[in-house]
Amino acid sequence: MKDLELFIYPKNRLHQTDLDLAASLHDLAQREIVDKRLEFKEDYDKLLKPSLAKLMVEMGLQRMFWPESLGGEEHNGPEASYTVVAALEQVGRGDIGVSFLVAHSLALQAALAMRENLNQEACARFAPLFCEGKDPVIVSFLLPVFGDDGKAPAWRGKAFQVRAMSKNGVWKLEGKGVRPTCSGVDAQLFGAWCAVDGEDQPAFILVPGDASGITRGPEFKKTGLAASRNAEVNLAGVEVPAENCLFRGELEYRRLLSWFWLGLSATTVGGLLAAYQILKEWGDNRVIKGKDSVFKENPLTGALMGEIAQDISMSRLLAYDLAGILADPGTFGDAGSEGVNTYALMIVHQNLATAERAIHRTMELMASAGYAKEWQLERYWRDLKTVQCYLGSHELAKHDFSRWFYGARTL
Amino acid sequence: MKDLELFIYPKNRLHQTDLDLAASLHDLAQREIVDKRLEFKEDYDKLLKPSLAKLMVEMGLQRMFWPESLGGEEHNGPEASYTVVAALEQVGRGDIGVSFLVAHSLALQAALAMRENLNQEACARFAPLFCEGKDPVIVSFLLPVFGDDGKAPAWRGKAFQVRAMSKNGVWKLEGKGVRPTCSGVDAQLFGAWCAVDGEDQPAFILVPGDASGITRGPEFKKTGLAASRNAEVNLAGVEVPAENCLFRGELEYRRLLSWFWLGLSATTVGGLLAAYQILKEWGDNRVIKGKDSVFKENPLTGALMGEIAQDISMSRLLAYDLAGILADPGTFGDAGSEGVNTYALMIVHQNLATAERAIHRTMELMASAGYAKEWQLERYWRDLKTVQCYLGSHELAKHDFSRWFYGARTL
Amino acid sequence: MRSIDVFSRPLEYLTPLGEQVGEIIRDWVEREVIPYRRQFDEDYLEHRYILPPFKKLLGEYGIQRILFPEDLGGWGLGHSDYLCVAAFRMFEEIARADSGMAVAFGVVFWPLVLICCEPHVNRRLCEEFAPMFTSTTEPVFSCMAMTEPQGGSDIENMEVLKGSTIRTTAVRDGDEWVINGHKLWPTNTGGVANLMAVVCTTNPGSRNPDDIAIIFVPCDIPGVTQGPAYEKAGMAADKNGDIWFENVRVPLWYRACGPGDDARYYGEIVSMGNMGSIAFAVGVMLNIYEKLQEYVERKTYRGMPLKENDAVAGVLADFAATVEAVRIIGYQCARMCDRQDLYGPRWSPEIVARARAHRYFAADRALEAIGKVMNLMECFGADRDWDVEKHWRDIKMVQLWLGGKQLSQMEVARWFFECETL
Amino acid sequence: MRSIDVFSRPLEYLTPLGEQVGEIIRDWVEREVIPYRRQFDEDYLEHRYILPPFKKLLGEYGIQRILFPEDLGGWGLGHSDYLCVAAFRMFEEIARADSGMAVAFGVVFWPLVLICCEPHVNRRLCEEFAPMFTSTTEPVFSCMAMTEPQGGSDIENMEVLKGSTIRTTAVRDGDEWVINGHKLWPTNTGGVANLMAVVCTTNPGSRNPDDIAIIFVPCDIPGVTQGPAYEKAGMAADKNGDIWFENVRVPLWYRACGPGDDARYYGEIVSMGNMGSIAFAVGVMLNIYEKLQEYVERKTYRGMPLKENDAVAGVLADFAATVEAVRIIGYQCARMCDRQDLYGPRWSPEIVARARAHRYFAADRALEAIGKVMNLMECFGADRDWDVEKHWRDIKMVQLWLGGKQLSQMEVARWFFECETL
After folding, report:
1. Residues of chain A contacting residue B310, judged by C-beta atoms under 8 Å apart
2. A308 contacts A360 by C-beta, under 8 angstroms
3. What value does the mean pLDDT of chain A take?
4. A2-136 is classed CATH 1.10.10.10
């Protein structure tokens, strides 16, 4: 892990517990994922699910925010943002898909159990699932998408995938061919940002995966993120109790997303750090132009390696900048404020775009070793591109930026 | 200035004095430079020199680091890095060239008068020039360059422009057709990183602009930075006393550069903030496609405006990240350590490249208003590109990155 | 050192005339322009230094005549099917020295295309204006007055706005047009132009193509006023300014092609403008190639010429690859505009869209490549003495004109993806 | 929806045969490949699904014969001056469905170029191998065995290393070559190939071009062993593996062109490999264009098709402009390889450098453009069902092979800037 310390991060803002957690996660990711990759490849049952269980249950990532009284670790101050980054960098270095799932869980925890905005009722209802079970709880979101079949109600130009109506203390949900953010096959809990029939205000509703009326399609083939076995989900008259509606406000919704994007920003850095280690080994050992020239000492390949390091460095700084912003709502505003949320979206897009470029270049440097599965680089390339696609269109995100910075209103 | 607050920076790390200074500089830059531009254009005597005097002397930027006992303000702890960024953002918003000159001065002050590494002798010798005079002291550096005529001694692949030899307590300097980093026409003080005849260790020597043996060529025409009237400088047997050699070590040299690059990073952000304000006005008022569509509300131009805001946001975060790194040597190492220096070089390159892209795009959005002098945008474009050129080749910088991150040794 | 002729272009498209004129211009450029061009850059207001070489090229060599029919003293290039490829070569050669001059040169011919080229030769106007260009050894300049203060690039956005925002009016009064309005930004204004083609409306607010009129106006008639040249970031040799038309009277038959056809053939102005823009970018890059060769050969790094450093060579390669690409695309664009029998009419939305795509792709790439070269040259990249910075400033304008990038994108998307409401 | 044929290419270069075969392949692709290609993607080890369509195209339609002289049962394309343009069209069509298949297809002909094309037709080898391809309706594959374990792209770096690092040896023993060595990564290995051309040295460590030998080796003779196919990020239809040669014996006259000429004409392998790579990129982009049209038409945004949103249209335009550019460059590259009378021999360092420049420029642009399309399509961009992600994975390899980007840059810099020591 010493090599990763070459990439500066605000160690002076992290607690010793964060550093210790990161070190443990580093070792676990190495032992349980990286070292087993050549043997198990992308096998879900043999590799990914067990390591997810270790992270979520043994290491306790799925208990992090919940109140101690409910079995959680109550690490739920805003400064937990640093913990999230320190942790997910390491998890992402092991496997982007696994880290992607953990980021879902942490975002939901932050939305419900953050000290300043603790949702007592929801915590009491959902914490036990996370704190008492021996299996990892896979959380997935059902969010509005950019581009639909023209029939769904819209929100900021995006189309809701799920509609809800409230009656007699029960929410009833409808959604056909809904595309979850992850794990349509496996998720135990879906968080849906729903259009509410007859009302302007949407609702964020938690739906247990085994609720009656939920059916799941076959697993998609996709370019990456093997840990997220995704599938379409259909909700036909699914009923959940009123308490499952966690919030109705955009502030809370944006808060959830800010923490989610923080996790993805850190996950991306993790992928970049993995690429760095693979490239470093290549640069140390590959000999080119006959016998006398080591790869990293060639002025052209050495310069490109330097450029890649620059990209990684900037990404890591920015992920921690976002942590710093979320850690101090007094200065920067609530995680759900428009400004902070805009920054979260900018940084996650920035990091994913940087990662795309940097890993592309790493592959170019490694030529056929770059795309051979044996060298393990290509999976970070596929996985991070998939995260970027699932994050959503950069064009649409830019409209959000314009709303904040220029006061655009109709985009 | 309120609009600039949309771009988040670590306000929680800045002192009130920094914020006050920034506010004053904002107003001064507006009043003395931006508002007078259409009248005076790039006139050195009527516009640029007077505003430089106001900044350096009246506002005291050239006294900032020096000990109080010598007439300075002794704001010379590492946390002054935040002050430098807060100040030069605002100066750069007014004029990149003026800010470029101030950055030279601040870097020299930091190298000599920083609390931890105070050079008593040098301070006593040079502080009065800065603290007692009524004119701005223009500092210029004579640094090694990438690519020479094949005859100069080399250092890390760069060619020294000045050679020095020490004899009887006197340094004698030689350099023909030397290209200063700025102000060959006007500089009162040249700081030269010299090859020393017969020794491996270079020397950083301060040369008064009026020393005997110094001649200056005619002013260059160049693409930007009107405030830096540059010219070749010849040093023919220039003699300076032994004390003018400020240091011989790479550590000190890198420390100077780290602070210099911090200043340039912030200057760049200033240019970006200026571009933002120009674009914002354009976006608010320009009507396209006939009558009904305001520029910022068009999905395509609105998205591009958002992308530009993203670039500006990231640059501002990174400039302050560098300030944060320099502010805490206990955590990150001395400003002259290889790691911190590498980060300074990465961030200044990153910001200048980002600025190039962002301002290019701003011009594209404003079409002919982008290159008409009247709209004032184009000078930031020319100025920042010139700063980038003077900073040096990115290819060579990447070799430095590779040395740090991959242990490349021969690049 | 390798010559600038090493870069690929489709040799099949070249014609003896085009190549011959290209050689003449190269010679002129090397003797009359390159040695003095740094002076030209300061000469944006007066054109004291810029005019004499133009007198030689346009007037004395007579190149200003080339579009007109041979029997009217021209060279008949308007009738040929190799006009654009020949023009491409000429533009490249001039832009190599100064793309501002290349623009000023190109615009001499731009409005004349409307009256000199098949299938819309306007014989009567050719006869009317040919003497202006053929009977003198003084340089004669044209200009294409399109943009208006309120509209930005609305005029260029013909497919969407259909001329509905044009405010310069042409009102019929007997056998004359009476023109009133205000145009800005056209090349060769600021007092340079002798003849203008003015885009007017005969019915303000109308979206009927018949109401768009392109009318020729000699600049020395009463009611035409030109303002001084603007100060710009570059392109000193391309003067831009305001023009005011106040009850300007010209004969009815000064209209270029007639109702409907003026709007239709306006597309040709756009296609050819885009084609020419690529040539300017290529010319500029050819000169930067020369400069760069000299730089990386003369400067050393660790005792070897800079170019022997692999990292430097990577930048050199990227630059060369960009020139290769842009030049090939440019010649293909020119050929497409020439061979309407194969590729379709150059005023069609299809060809307009293609030419816009080629242009903005090329300009973006060129600018990116030149920016990297400047950085490689460190302070010399920003130095007037190495000329690269001048090209960089100039070529930025090539990227921005003709309605800017976004308008181009919309036209490209509209054609290739059949968008209907953009 | 617009057809994929809207993108520009130089119509002057097309030939009836090339276009006709192109149409045949388009038909084959639409019936035999596109409906099944998602299965192919899982079939990298077995090629159970991939082989039958190849049997039809190569064997039954007989396209595997095209290079051989007509009197030997071929179609004589090796003798033509339009081979590369025709190949470009064929590659585009196949890559539109599956660029892995396009590569496997292209490599059938790659080594045969050395014996079937002027000025180095090896009549005796043509006679020897033509029946293998012409007398069967089973598909027959070739392979070009170059890369070795220790060397990475050293083999491709012929100009610098001059074969000095080649470790696969060919030792003369009477009237036979005895070949020993280990190659990896060639297309159509992993058990696919029937015939290989093997780059050997007759004198290890030598920099004398006479010592580089390209020797044909039928794959079924003793001593040739092929390993299983590698697992890669994409291009399932292009099997890559190891080959070991252990005292493999072939007649002396199985050497392709002879001492000196093997090294010389190896440049042709490189030029044409680069040309083909551009075609693969274009084919892929043509299919993405189809998919994208469907996507932005079908999906809506605020009640309108996605494509009517200006921001989306901007991405669409950039994609279309990239396809325009890359396709034009690719066809010019192919033409340059065809018309050696105009452009010079395609094995010359000049043409090799140009082709490398065209290829890496094109591949970089394509990849960038495709990445943006994927992001626009959000989760559907990463989805196997929309096929874009498959193309993206595949085309990355096109960018990386043939020695990778850095080697290309060095060759380009070396030629355009006369670097001597890179």
Report:
1. 346, 349-350, 398, 401
2. no
3. 95
4. no
State residue B368's pLDDT score. Answer: 85
Q: Which of C294, C301, C419 to mutate to test the interface with D (most CBs of D within 10 A)?
A: C419
Q: Which member of C160, C311, C385 has the closest CB to residue B395?
A: C311
Please name the residue of chain C whose CA is at the shortest distance from the CA of residue B399. Answer: C311
Integer angstrom CA distances of residue A311 from A212, A343, B95, B281, C185: 47, 19, 29, 33, 41
Q: Which residues pair with residue B240 across a beta bridge? A: B171
* C-beta atoms of D312 and A395 within 8 A: yes
Give C42's pLDDT tier (boundaries 50, 70, 90).
Answer: confident
Q: What is the pLDDT of residue C144?
A: 96
Of A5, A3, A21, residue with least CA distance to A85: A21
> Where, residue-wise, is CATH 1.20.140.10 in chain B?
250-406
Mean pLDDT of C109-121: 96
Is there a contact between C116 and C68 (Cβ–Cβ < 8 Å)?
Answer: yes
Write the DSSP symbol of residue C422: -
CATH topology of domain A141-247: Butyryl-CoA Dehydrogenase, subunit A; domain 2 (2.40.110)
Cα–Cα dist C323/C316, whole Å: 11
- Write out the residues of chain D at the interface with chain B, using a CB-CB cutoff of 8 A: 309-314
Q: Give start-end residues of each CATH 1.10.540.10 domain in chain B.
A: 2-136
Q: In 3D, which of A347, A346, A359, A367 has the Cα closest to residue A386?
A: A359
Which of these ranges, A227-241, C122-136, D122-136, D223-237, has the smallest mean pLDDT? D223-237
Subunits with at least 3 CB pairs below 8 A relative to chain D? A, B, C
pLDDT beyond 90 at A226: yes
Pairing assessment for the beta strands B163-167 and B170-178 based on DSSP bridges? antiparallel
CA dihedral A184, A190, A196, A202 (to 10 degrees): -110
How far does D312 lie from chain B, in Å, by closest CA? Answer: 8
**Residue of chain C with shortest Cα separation from D320:** C416
Note the pLDDT of residue D421.
85
CB under 8 Å to C289, separation ≥6 — which residues?
C4, C7, C319, C320, C323, D416
The highest-level CATH class for domain B250-406 is mainly alpha
Neighbours of chain C (3+ CB pairs under 8 A): A, B, D
Q: What residue ranges of chain B are covered by domains with CATH 2.40.110.10?
A: 141-247
Query: Which phi and psi angles does D212 have, rounded to 5°?
Result: -90, 125
B395–chain D Cβ distance below 8 A for any pair: no
Q: What is the mean pLDDT of residues D336-349?
A: 96
Give C176-196 pLDDT, tens digit per residue.
Answer: 999 999 999 999 999 999 999
Q: Extract the residue ranges of chain B whose pLDDT is less than 50.
A: none
Q: Which residue has the tokens 């050997």?
A: D200
- pLDDT on residue A290: 63
What ipTM was reported for this prediction? 0.96
Whether omega for the bond prior to residue D111 falls within 30 degrees of 0, making it cis, is no
> Looking at the complex, does the CB of residue C329 fall below 8 Å from at least one CB of chain D?
yes
Q: What is the pLDDT of residue A149?
A: 78
The Cα–Cα gap between A240 and A235 comes to 12
Contact A206, A123 (CB under 8 A): no
Residue type, position A83, single letter: T
| Nearest residue of B to residue C301, measured between CA atoms | B147
Q: What is the pLDDT of residue B290?
A: 62
pLDDT tens track for A173-214? 999 999 999 999 999 999 999 999 999 999 999 999 999 999
pTM, two decimal places: 0.97
